[in-house]
Write a structure and sequence with these properties.
The structure is a single chain. With 165 residues, the protein is an alpha+beta fold. It has four helices and nine strands, in the order βααβββαβαββββ. Strands 1-2-3-4-5-9-6 form a seven-stranded mixed sheet, sandwiched between helices. The radius of gyration is 15 Å and the shape is globular. 33% of the residues are buried.
Length: 165
């Protein structure tokens, strides 16, 4: 199955139980469901997407927004795809839709973050044209420049940016 075999649509609040039921598994067992409260599917649907297979099963999703404080910046809060469907263009197709939404809203760049131990996410974002923010305050964690304690004690993060053409 490729991205062409998928149906893409905007999420709704009714999708919340379905998304949180898979997010921890899809992220390698890390407990992340608390990062996806229902509000994301109530207030950010205009810049978020769901990918579904022809049988209606979930293949992936992205939730994000345009920064109200910096309208030139879009932020991809969470992207996930079924691990059994990776390397088939699902994540790329979701991001391309998000990029189009961001461009249409006037954003010129996109930011995303991940945990430095998530090698799959780091490789995916680099393949999508994101650059790792490296500079003052970063230290190598698991071999990648990261921001220690970015989201609190012990919550280190790799920060990515990508310019929109």
């Amino acid at each position: 199955m490729s991205a062409e075999d998928l149906h893409f649509r905007r999420p709704t609040a009714a999708d919340h139980p379905r998304l949180v039921s898979v997010v921890d598994e899809w992220w390698g067992g890390r407990s992340l469901r608390q990062l996806l409260p229902r509000l994301w599917l109530e207030h950010f649907t205009g810049t978020s997407w769901i990918a579904e297979r022809s049988d209606g099963r979930l293949a992936g999703f992205i939730v994000g927004f345009i920064s109200p404080d910096d309208p030139a910046m879009a932020y991809a809060h969470m992207i996930a795809s079924d691990p059994n469907r990776r390397q088939r263009g699902v994540g790329r197709a979701l991001y391309e839709r998000f990029f189009a939404d961001a461009r249409a809203a006037g954003a010129r760049r996109v930011q995303a973050i991940t945990w430095p131990g998530n090698r799959t996410s780091i490789a995916f974002h680099r393949a999508m044209g994101f650059s790792v923010v490296d500079g003052p305050g970063t230290v190598p964690i698991y071999g990648t420049p990261a921001h220690p304690d970015h989201d609190g004690d012990g919550e280190d993060r790799v920060i990515f940016t990508r310019e929109l053409a």
